[in-house]
Design a protein that fits this description.
The chain has 2 helices and 4 strands. The protein is an alpha+beta fold. The two termini are 26 Å apart.
Length: 87
């Protein structure tokens, strides 16, 4: 994964007047991880890692004058999730 934590676009198309982007399939969304952990939350260390990566990505987008208008756990994709759920 690139160091700026942004995935590359594979393709783009228009569907029913909506502009759509296609990306490589990643493991799971942050919401899936939270759900898998029965909504009990994640470790503080893991939250720091994820938030730092989100902020790094948003900084790159801001530098390109791009605004992410739908940032939510369902739209934060994780490349690997085996480390995400505390035992």
């Amino acid at each position: 994964m690139p160091c700026n934590h942004i995935i590359c676009i594979r393709d783009s198309f228009t569907w029913r007047s909506h502009f759509c982007l296609s990306f490589n399939l990643l493991a799971v969304s942050l919401f899936d991880v939270i759900k898998q952990n029965k909504f009990r939350g994640l470790t503080l260390n893991l939250i720091r890692i994820i938030v730092r990566q989100i902020l790094d990505a948003l900084t790159v987008l801001a530098d390109c004058d791009i605004i992410h208008s739908d940032l939510k756990p369902e739209n934060v994709m994780l490349q690997s999730f085996s480390f995400c759920v505390p035992s």
